[in-house]
Amino acid sequence: MMEIIPAILAKDINDLRSKLGRFVNTSKVVQIDVCDGKFVPTYSWPMNTGDRKEILNILNEDEGMPFWNYFDFEFDLMIKDGIDHFEFFTRLGAKRVVFHLEAEDENKLKEFIESMDPYIRENVEIGLSIKNDTETIKLDKFINIIDFIQLMGIKEIGYQGEPFDERVLVKIKEIKEKYKDIIISIDGSVNENTSSALVKAGADRLVVGSYLNGRLDIIETIKELESLDKNR
Q1: What digits encode the pLDDT tens for the residues 191-215?
Q2: 232 in a structural domain
Q3: Count of domains observed in the chain
Q4: With contact defined as beta carbons under 8 Å apart, do 196 and 168 qualify?
Q5: Is residue 127 part of a domain?
């Protein structure tokens, strides 16, 4: 079954709570998009927020993330120097963390992942995202120390509802030919018009944002996407 991951871009914790509530009992994993206004031009929770009290309550374990008992949280770090914020997001309860290669010093990122605390490394999946114009060869030094690769279905990241970038289909095939066992997740412009092609190209996970937000029957839409077969 195809793994479908709803994506949320929240302006504050109340917006996060409202959007998470729509996906209760639909998907186990939810991706929270984190934007810092530097690597990407947009801001999102928790980088732009005044919700300091609520964040401190979560960090101090006085309360949990909204709907923490329903979801495993995947944080997509569209931020400069995400490694400097990694501990913060693990304390928020991250089960998966996605670094963007173009936002990091490659050597520092490699060293950071390799030296990660074994307990954290065992309990948090590490993903590496690259843009479609980034050379695949840059993945070579990371492929044995990460859990999955995230490719972008859009050219301009940090927004939802952007047009589809067809280059991602070539990128998927290229990576699957080179690293056949790596999990590939696709984020951006995943919808009824693009999902079949993405799956046929070799995608293992689909991260879905604006398409789900615009659907009345979220459960049925997720079931339709989950049923996509690579062999068709």
Answers
A1: 999 999 999 999 999 999 989 987 8
A2: no
A3: 1
A4: no
A5: yes
